[in-house]
Sequence to fold (689 residues):
Amino acid sequence: TGLEGWLRYAPLPAEIISLQPSFSHIVALSRSETSPIYTAAKELQDGLKKLLNRDVNIVKTATEIKEIPSSKIVVGTLDSFSLTDEKIEVDRIPDLKEDGYWLSTRKIDSGTTDILIAGQNERGALYGAFQFLMLLAQNKPYPESHTSSPQAPIRWINQWDNLDGTIERGYAGPSIFFKDGAVLDDLTRVAQYARLMASVGLNGIIVNNVNSHCNLFNPTNMKGLGRIADAMRPWGVRIGVALYFDTPKDLGGLPTSDPLNPDVVSYWNDLTTRLYRNVPDLLGYLIKANSEGQPGPLTYGRTLADGANLFARALKPHGDGLVMYRAFVYNHHLDESNLKNDRANAAVEFFDGLDDEFEDNVIVQIKYGPIDFQIREPPSPLLSHLRRTPIILEFQVCQEYLGQQSHLVYLPPLWRTILDFDLRIDGTPSVVRDIVSGSKFDWKRSGYAAVVNVGQDSTWLGSHMAMSNLYAYGCYCWDASRDEVTVIQDWARLTFGSHPTIVDTITKISMESWPAYENYSGNLGIQTLCDIVKHCHYGPSPAAMDGNGWGQWTRADSHAIGMDRTVATGTGNAGQYPPEVAAMFEDIKTTPDDLLLWFHHVPYTHQLKSGKTVIQHFYDAHYDGAKTAQTFPVQWQALRGLIDENRFHHTALRLTYQAGHSIVWRDSINNFYHAKCGIPDVHGRVGNH
Ligand code: GCW
Fold:
């Protein structure tokens, strides 16, 4: 099955096993069986059994570690190490940040070796244990002394699960959390999910959909949330919930949900108190308000800050709970006939001026691009506007606009376009990953969230290959400069095996996948040309982009295409970026080709930096992308016999489907623009079918 994801711990070959120390004991420096330290010890035990076929006993809390025979693995927090005879050793290690770990190998004599794993906290120790096991599983050498700390403290997942068990934009079966309005009795999958999360350093999750407004807070569900939290806590994962702004009115029997109304305030205070009784380490509340028709503070004539602060104050007395206030505030009934209207402007328009208005436990959660998880977007301009209010950058692991897990699209190369972008705030280096980590503006808590939407499917995401994106997401939260090639190589080895053909084939297909999908779905920053009107966001439908209020417009007519977002003649969106970046996007000559149609409205005959015209680039790119996708099932054949039949066929089927669907994309888009502009393809391929 695919349930274990990349944590398969496939047996190592005998010749490798024979070179490993004969581990004698796992020492857990904790008495509590629900502590992540004990989880780490059990994971080590399980991993050693599967990888090396060794039975190793767990010893709990030893102070005289040196007394225990060597070739042991000791796992604990730095503090717990300090109480042992290893104190001198751990006193020497460099400072660790929250959730960081130290992993060290001590060769003793006659081939015996101790492994010491010390976490800055319990969670960090668990991460160190996973790191050790993943090195072992790949037959990589253990470091002599290695410290690692995450760049960002917030490394979270958002699930869009509804209480009836459906998942908005979920492509892998029903919810692992809810069914028929209640929390599931059996939370086995929830704990397994937390294990996968922990193995790549993810430490929090919002379990319900930002769009759901069912009764999550009746007494049974409150207890249910408590059970979810209990299932995930041993893995160092904390939970939070998404709230519906109008709950006081809808379910509380109040006449209003006005955030300044005293009854509304006490409604939320009371609810929060009850929730903390069940989830004492609540992460906090995720809020989608005044977005896509949802109510919010603006509905009651209040500011977005009034709305956020209502929840922030309710949380404060109970702990370190945060309000994740989504910047995805916009009007989805925008009038396309007004050339100044632009959905990409909304976040800055709504949030500018609020930087000093939020309580200190409010954090603004911003999607990576100004529109909505498209195949290519510039970074959201709001990332350059908040200085004192920390932020969470929102990614999507589920591939809503990117083929919904029926197409393989390895996402890190897309993420890198955002993370590596230098926004040049105040003319100073302002790379997005340094803003998000908190280092640029000295924020204590900031980081990442990704919409993942795993479901009951035994592959979690509906496709084995799609899991590389979940694995990679954790890696990037930890270290946003990671090289996407080594990430996919590690994932391939852990998931499918270390044979060079496996690793090379998966790496090659994965690295080709995002450029291919961009080529056959939407080029030059025109967005993913999928169906907006039917809301499925799947399959080619270039006509659906315009003529509606969603604002994902292309403004294509018989002569020209693209959104004029310049300050001089367009919507002014380019001007929302800091001056150097604004100047680059304002000028067609300095706008990179791959964002040309995002920022400029140009004739189809406009010449790109490559020398091609826009329309010829469209034709060629769609042919190139589809051609690449057609090699995927062929390349995959190399894995036959090297991996198990089940996963081989499951993946082969999907890649074959993708190859076919890429042709549907190619021809639909090319024929559409050919019909619109009447300009022939210089290679004579388009319009002759
Ligand atoms: O991408 C869009 C999705 C909606 C989603 C919304 C959001 C949960 O199409 O399904 O709603 O974004 O992020 O709130």
In short: DSSP finds 20 helices and 18 strands in the chain.
